[in-house]
Amino acid sequence: MLGLYLHIPFCSAICNYCNFNRGLFDEALKTRYVAALRQEIARTPAGWPADTIFFGGGTPSLLTPEEIGSIVQAIRDRFALAADAEITLETNPETVDRDKLERFRGAGVNRISFGVQSFRDDELKRLGRIHSAGRARAAVREARAAGFDNVSLDLMMWLPGQSVEAWLGNVDALVEAAPDHASLYLLELYPNAPLKEEMARGGWSLAPDEDAAEMYLQAMERLERAGLGQYEISNVARPGKASRHNLKYWTDGEWLAFGCGAHSTRDGVRWKNVSATEDYVARVTAGLDLVTDRRILSSSDRLEEALFTGLRLTEGIDIAAAGTRYSADVWKQYGQALRPFLDEGWLVREGARLRLTRAGMLMANEVMAVFV
Ligand code: SF4
Predict the structure, then answer these.
(1) What is the DSSP letter of 50?
(2) pLDDT, one tens digit for every residue, the chain (372 residues)
(3) 266: closest CA among 225, 230, 295?
(4) Which residue CA neighbors atom 5 of ligand 1 most closely?
(5) Cα maximum dimension of the chain
(6) Where does the chain show beta strands of DSSP type E?
């Protein structure tokens, strides 16, 4: 079953740490973009089976429920969409109220993922976010009132000037909001991020590495005690509420992605659409090719990727099955390089399964470097 990703590149304001493919909201461009997305979907061969749809961005909740509904309908017209398909909408708290959420639900959305990032107004302001903690809490309540039984919250960790206590206060506030799923991301500062200048001006620094490790480990313990079990390095969920769409990325699945800058992977081929929004719309409208990069993945590329994405999961990866799939003896190929990580207690081998321990998750980049 395919996962389908729709990229919506519009935001009401640009956050000072953001390096995604996005731009400021423009009503006229948005209307043309939605039409282009429907056209791109209609170019796909008919009848392929799919069971997840994910609207990501940018800020997909800046689209109207009618626009979201029209895209879902375009997908239904083209794909064999499973009756129980998971349909996620990334949503910024300030873009919705109960009525809009109800209408998103009517448009087919059955999972809401709120970009909360922090439950402290001072931290939100520092990141250039335009919602308040109170608005985020209210948005979660409104989503419940609108009938959503699958709500996810994103939080960012290791923010400038953030202490371990402040972070754990955010984790407690998340637990209080009672989501079904949560993603905890480490703030990554790209080289020219405006936030870097603001940090210098404000005298804010990042907590030391040991504190970041403590933030992560204590957060995972608190979330687990609250019934949100870890299933991936950065993700926790109540039983049965893991993100079915994102699991495709970590379990060697296949997905098609629509919109500017979107990456697809199917049948051992990976490709990327043109990045600029205007360029994308112009090309779709003119019936031109959208792909800028296309790469045929070799069997060893595919094996490496299956291994390093699979290791992100707490259950790890079945190396015997991966080896069979890609005609390789995984242990023979990588066993020696992995041995020191097993000795450190960062990796565990249980029968055919290889998995990171929680301490190993802090060292995941070092371990995964073995495969790339
Ligand atoms: S809302 Fe999200 S995508 Fe938009 S600028 Fe902020 S971080 Fe980037």
Answers:
(1) E
(2) 999 999 999 999 999 999 899 999 999 999 999 999 999 999 999 999 999 999 999 999 999 999 999 999 999 999 999 999 999 999 999 999 999 999 999 999 999 999 999 999 999 999 999 999 999 999 999 999 999 999 999 999 999 999 999 999 999 999 999 999 999 999 988 888 999 998 989 888 888 888 999 999 999 999 999 999 999 999 999 999 999 999 999 999 999 999 999 999 999 999 999 999 999 999 999 999 999 999 999 999 999 999 999 999 999 999 999 999 999 999 999 999 999 999 999 999 999 999 999 999 999 999 999 988
(3) 295
(4) 14
(5) 58
(6) 2-8, 10-11, 23-24, 49-57, 80-91, 111-117, 151-157, 181-186, 229-232, 235-237, 255-258, 263-266, 269-273, 291-296, 317-318, 347-350, 353-356
Rounded to two decimals, the pTM is: 0.96
Ligand 1 binding residues, C-beta < 6 A = 11, 14-15, 18, 20, 22, 57-59, 92, 115
Q: Are 283 and 292 in contact (CB under 8 A)?
A: no
* 243 C-alpha to ligand 1 centroid (Å): 21
